Amino acid sequence: MKAFVSILAGLGLTWALWGQEAAPSVRLNTLGYLPEARKEATVEGGAERFSVVRERDGVVMLEGPLGEARPHGGSGTRLRTADFSGLAEPGEYRLRLDAGGTSPVFRVGNDVYREAYRTVMRGFHLWRCGTAVRGEHGGDVFAHGACHLDDARLDLVGRPGERRAATGGWHDAGDYNKYVVNAGVTVGVLLRAWEDFGPALGGIRLGWPDSGGEWPEYLSEVRWEIDWLHRMQADDGRVYHKVSTREFGAMILPDRETAERYFAPPSTAATASFVAMMAQAARVFRPYDAAEAERCLAAARRSYAYLKAHPDNEHADQSAFRTGTYQTSDDDDRLWAAAELWETTGDPEVLKDLEGRLREAGVRVQDEFDWGSVGNLGIFTYLRSGRGGRDEELVQEFRDDVLRAADRIVATRDGQAYGRTMGDRYHWGCNGTVARQSLVLHAAYRVSARRVYREAALDTVHHVFGRNAYGRSFVTGVGYRPPMRPHDRRSAGDDVVAPWPGYLVGGAHPTEGDWRDVEEDYRTNEIAINWNSALVYALAGFVDGAAGWRIEGPPPARRPDVVFVPTPNKVVKRMLELAEIQPGDVVYDLGCGDGRIVVEAAKRYGVRAEGFDIDPDRVREARENVRTNGVAHLVTIHQADIFTLDLRPANVVMLYLLPQLNVRLMPQLRELRPGSRILSHDFDMRGARPVVRETVEVEDTGAGDLFFGPREHTIYLWRVPWEPGE
Question: pTM above 0.85?
Answer without folding.
Answer: no
